[in-house]
Predict the structure.
Amino acid sequence: MAFNFDNSKKLALIKKDKSNKKAIDKKIKSLCEKINSNKNYFTTSSCSGRIVLIIDEEKKKPDLFLFRTHNKINFINLKKEIDKCKNKNLNRIMNKTVYFKQEPCILVVSCRDKENQWKLFSKAKNNGWKKSGILSLDKKLLTELMSTENISFPVINKGKLLVGDDFLKIVVKKANNNLKRGWEKIKRLEILI
């Protein structure tokens, strides 16, 4: 059966949100709405950027997240979450590594045709979404728009804290700045579309 863009868009926009959060992040919602209101595009997934504490596993599973936020954090709250990981989840993490990750904004968009796919990709790539790429050139014509701001490092290994407070204070500042830069790129792209 041939891919029908209009029918796929209609179905995508009415289906239930399958994300763990069950809703679009506030900071990227307006951009998603603008893309979805354009006859040539629809979003298939999105994230405005986030900060997580996650158990390091090869296969992605929903129960790996020990902490997740799409907002800025402060040092005190991060320390509380790390302590919570060590205390409440000790059995789960005893033989595991827990990572701190600040991940960039990301958006996956289905495009009507290759011309519109290239237009969207070029606008994003030329305006700070440097890790963007074409995921599919047939059927759905998927484009992944991704920013570059990210941090990732092990914070706990086999129940033992690997980093000190001074390091975490620097990380909190950098992670918050990265989120802010990502949100600014979201706003700029919304204006360009």
